[in-house]
Specification:
The chain has helices at about 10-15, 35-45, 60-65, 100-120, 150-160, 180-195, 200, 215-220, 250-265, and strands at about 1-5, 15-20, 25-30, 30, 50, 75, 80-85, 90-95, 125, 135-140, 165-170, 170-175, 205-210, 225, 245. By secondary structure, the protein is an alpha/beta fold.
Length: about 270
């Protein structure tokens, strides 16, 4: 992983949009700092497309889509996108599967959750589970005493034995039915709402993340960036980011955003 200082300014100036994870990428110690939120707003005001892409739940994403300086938000690891239409005063919601399937899946996930908690003492159902539409989130270090990353990996493997897709984030292990992920829903969003073919335009977008569930994005985008805390997951990454920031978490995101903004004003 090269330093973000090595990114050619011409590559930064060519960007059409910046995508980013939220937990431990935008946030620092579980908090969204004024500097990180301000960087989002500056990127948006500069004319860039801004889309958070997170494992966080639908309930949170409703708020984000309506009230943050963003063009849309992708949640629950690619289960949906939400986009607020200010002219129509309407929140547009697009899910990977229909409502009946989501309801059925939630019943099955509740049973699997019991098995996980019994097999891995010290874990808990994530405190945001009640706001989720499509997935199961197992807390291994957010509101419980932190467990080792290898425990999180073993939880993911157990979920997979029950037919789920599973990803490890910096705070949760998420499991869901279906093969959607952050990348597949990003492609859907760009095609349906922005008339863009991401396969042809991937160089026009950057992605910033921090953990193994961001690996599909790191592998897809030439301009992929990890905030410095990505290093703790180096052994678990199927794809590493091309670049890494000096600072961790929200400060690392601000570091990259400043490079983008400075490159646009120096041309």
């Amino acid at each position: 992983m090269r330093s973000v200082a090595d990114i050619p300014p011409v590559q930064l100036r060519a960007l059409r949009g910046v995508f980013m994870d939220i937990d431990d990428t935008l946030t620092t110690g579980g908090r969204l700092t004024a500097a990180a939120y301000g960087a989002l707003e500056e990127l948006k005001d500069a004319g860039l497309m801004v889309v958070p892409i997170t494992g966080r739940p639908a309930g949170w994403c409703d708020h984000i889509a309506r009230m943050w300086p963003v063009d849309a938000v992708i949640g629950e690891n690619g289960a949906f996108y939400f986009r607020y239409d200010p002219a129509g005063r309407k929140l547009e919601k697009r899910f990977a599967v229909d409502g009946a399937r989501r309801e059925s899946d939630r019943r099955h996930l509740a049973e699997i959750a019991k098995l996980v908690l019994a097999a891995f003492p010290g874990t808990a159902i994530a405190s945001d589970q009640q706001y989720r539409e499509t997935d199961l989130a197992i807390d291994y270090c957010e509101d419980v005493p932190p467990l080792a990353i290898d425990v999180a990996q073993r939880i993911a493997e157990l979920l997979k034995t029950h037919g789920l897709s599973a990803k490890v984030s910096s705070i949760h292990v998420n499991g869901w039915y279906g093969r959607h992920d952050k990348l597949s829903m990003t492609q859907t969003l760009l095609r349906e709402r922005f008339d863009a073919d991401l396969a042809l335009e991937r160089a026009a977008f950057a992605f910033v993340g921090d953990s193994p569930n961001d690996a599909p994005m790191f592998g897809y985008f030439p301009l992929s960036v990890g905030v410095a805390n990505i290093r703790q997951f180096a052994a678990q990454l199927a794809h590493a980011p091309a670049y890494v920031t000096r600072a961790e978490a929200g400060a690392g995101f601000v570091e990259f955003a400043r490079l983008v903004l400075d490159a646009r004003t120096s041309q």
